[in-house]
Every structure is written in C-alpha cells, then in structure tokens.
Amino acid sequence: MKKLIPLLLSFLLIGCASDTEQKGLDAIAALYQGKATYSKSFHSSLGEETIKSFNITVMDSERIDTLSPGMTSALIATLAYDNFSEEERESYTQVNVSLFNSKKDSAGFTFPTPLLHNLLVKRKTFNEFSNWTLNGEFQKIDGLKNNDAIPQEIGEIIQNSLATTEESYGKLIAFEPYGIGKVQDSIGELYQYQGYFVFQSNKRKPYFVVVDSKPDDERLVGFKIF
Predict the structure, then answer these.
(1) How far is CA 146 from CA 8, 74, 111, 168, in A?
(2) How far apart are alpha carbons 181 and 69 in whole angstroms?
(3) Is the pLDDT of residue 45 over 90?
(4) What pTM value is reported for the model?
C-alpha cells in the first residue's frame, strides 16, 4: 500500500499593494493615526480550500492603546475590504489583522471575507444614522429602525438630546467610526457599530448603532449616545 503524503504549500507573497489596497491602508492609517502595513500570503493543502490572505499590521497608534482590539480589528478589516476591487474581493478568502500597542503587546484576528461583506453591507445603517444626525435630518432616522425592536419614534429624541449636548460642547461637526463588535440579546446575534460624535470644542462623545446580523436585514434594532 502506498503511503499518502499530504501536499502542503504556504507562501508569503511579496509585491506592491494595488491602488485599491493602498487606499484602504491609507484610510486605516488616517483613522487610527498610526502606521498600517501589509503582506499577502497563500496557503494550500491537498483536499482543503486554498486560503489567500491579506494581512494588515497597525502600530504606532495611540488610539489602539485605548480601544478594544477585537472591535478595532473588525473595523480595520472591513475598511480594507471596502476598498478592494471586485476581483480582490473574490480572490482573498480572509483578512488578518495584527495590532501592536505602545508596549509592543500584540493581538491578532482573522476575518473571512463573507463576514466582511455582511459587515460592510450593514455598515450603511451606521453611516446613514450618523450622517442624518450630523446634518440635522432627524426625521429620516425613524425610517431605519425595526419597529418591533424600537416601537417609539426616535428622531425627535435624538434631536432634543443633541441640542442639549451642543449647548455644552458647541455644534456637532463630524463623526468618526472606531470599531465593530458582535453582541447577543433576546433577538439573537447583533452587530454593534461604534463611533464618536465630534463637537466644535473638540469634545468626542461615543455612540453605537446596533443592526441585526441576519442576511438581508439592515434595520436598526438599537442605539445609544453616551
């Protein structure tokens, strides 16, 4: 009987980032005010799926020190995927993220591209919630919500809360995302998109927007502005 020897191939691919890949790295470096570098790797084993990875390392970022690594890395991977070309989205099977804080402690996370696709689609709800709050289009926010999860009207509540905050910190001038996480409640698994509202006084107030994780359901099921 012949002994079967599994064939295992693993390569670190060296080359320049494409324009779309570099755009994602630049966006990550700008958001976290640090350094974002990359590599690509290829792993193949006989009888198993070939894995092609885009690997991101983020360091020299004070923000990394103060944020949850798991939630930060999820947004980093999503930002990279967002900027991939259609060909790159189909080619890569996962995005790996390595974070190094100021003490050189490290944390690593892996995100399959189907998950990143889902996170990207549902991030639209976070962006619309944030933009409409920023632009004072509060009536539109009620159109985002799952009425079973949030039966009351929320646009006016957000408007009144923001008016009170602006009395203390000046006008709302921007929003900054900083993380994505998974949470669990009676509804099931949810995605929590986290960000800061930025005011004229440079005060940054955290907030989050929660969306159901089920495919084809992008409705808002929760939010909080701290």
Answers:
(1) 48, 24, 27, 32
(2) 10
(3) no
(4) 0.89
